[in-house]
Amino acid sequence: MNVSSGCFVEAALTLRRVAELLDGENPEAEIPDFLLDYSRGCTTAGGLKEAMFLEMAEHFDKGEHWEKAIAVLQELIPYYELVLIDYGKLAQLHRRLSELYAKVNSTLRMESCYFYVAFYGTGFPEYWTNRKFVFRGEKLEKLGDFKARMMNKFYGAQTVDTIKNSDHLIGEEGRFLQIIPVTPIQAESTLDSSAGVLLRWYYKHHDITSFELLRPLRCDDTKWTTLMNTESTQLWIQRRVMTVAHPLPDILNFAPVEFEEEPPANNPVEVAINRIEEVNASLRETAELVAIGFTEYTGPLGGKIIGVLKADVGGGVKSYESFFSDEISALATPEEAVSIKKLRKTLLNHVGIIEFCLYVHAARPQLISEVFHSSCVDLFLDYKRAIETRFGKAFSFLPLGNTIYLPASGNLVAASNNLSASSFTGTTSNTNLGGSNSSISLEDANDAKNNVFMRVSGTLLRSTASKARSSAANVTLQRDKKSSHHDAAGTSVDFDKSRDIAEMAYILRNVIRHTVVESPMDDSTETEGDSSEDIDIEDAEDANGSVSTALEPDDPGLT
Fold it and tell me: What's this model's pTM, rounded to 2 decimal places?
């Protein structure tokens, strides 16, 4: 059933449950009677388990869960090597593993979004009545599409258009569906932060047991607004965390919610840290894609760089100056003081990441405008000077001898000669993967739809691959390592020579290692009574994962 409906991952996980019932240690063991109908032409339990594992790997491959396919095939290695002692099968298995590793390392994938669904009322079947679940949607499925699917499945249900807890509807007559997009929370120990961007992407969206919903609150009268009453000092974020019974994906595309909690609201300093870290992660991921050969992201990288640098003209990090004042330091709790230190370090790392992005951007001179890049460098130098003046010396991730300037200006072949610093559109791919003129503003909280690179559920692909959805259901972009540019003498120079890939990989590891800043979030601040107005569910899809949303009215309980 799963295979016929295209749910290959769920089919593979179902096979896994069945295969665990078989004895794989004894190759001559008989197949249990209850599995004879599923023997797949095998006569022994060992043979059937082997066949099921190979079938599992094929399903995971079709579902683009190559990491799980690799794990399944690796379990066959000791069976071939020590039990069957069949080196022919072992050689074939390693060739298959090589293909899967190559796919992980060279192919972009589209993520599935997750949705919190609460079933209220007495009109649902018993299994669903007054229960809450997290569903795994289809690839790049929007809230409206998922909601339409659910309404067709549960005909006659009414939607609950609020993100607030609606337990008051329990026991009510009728059918009520509350559907909210939620953000997966990656397990801390899943993967080392220095792993490749494509591998990190997988674990960011899969094997998830916890999800969160972010709700912005506004408070005008707290210690944070003492010196400066701005959006940055008014904005708090209330988190709602849901934990499900088992990791998703699983044999079904949903899991029941076991419990929910609302930790204390994040204060404005923590909100500022999260904002900057989101931008840093987006810049770093895009730069890494360009560095490993995905030339389609050269344009978006330039757009992100100019978006951050020009956002500072309208306020930017200047809005955070009050957090470092003596008055705030005197009022801050020890936990808040730690957060303020983390904010300073995050800002200084932010400068280093932009510098690294400019270094990578300059490594593709044949794809960029020399005028555009030069203007980015000029803006960056002013940006860096301003931050270092306020917050101290910024850290540079570039080894000595590396530069953010173009290697040989003059006769470089630019992607376009009439591009300006205010608008840059990539033209390096036949597939339109999206323009790069979207600005990443740290302060534009009232225009969530423009902050396309800050949406958690699409940090890597949302602003690019989703626009190719209509032309291809499965976007696969292979590395392009044949790009070249011309130096001033007109000689063709390979990208590997102009910016050595091994050197870039070394710098990338340093960037990731130094920019994953850890410090405890403040749990001491309590909220007393939420007087905020409701947020429309449609806005929650953009708000979730980004604090750049419409603010809510004052909450007098925040201090």
Answer: 0.75
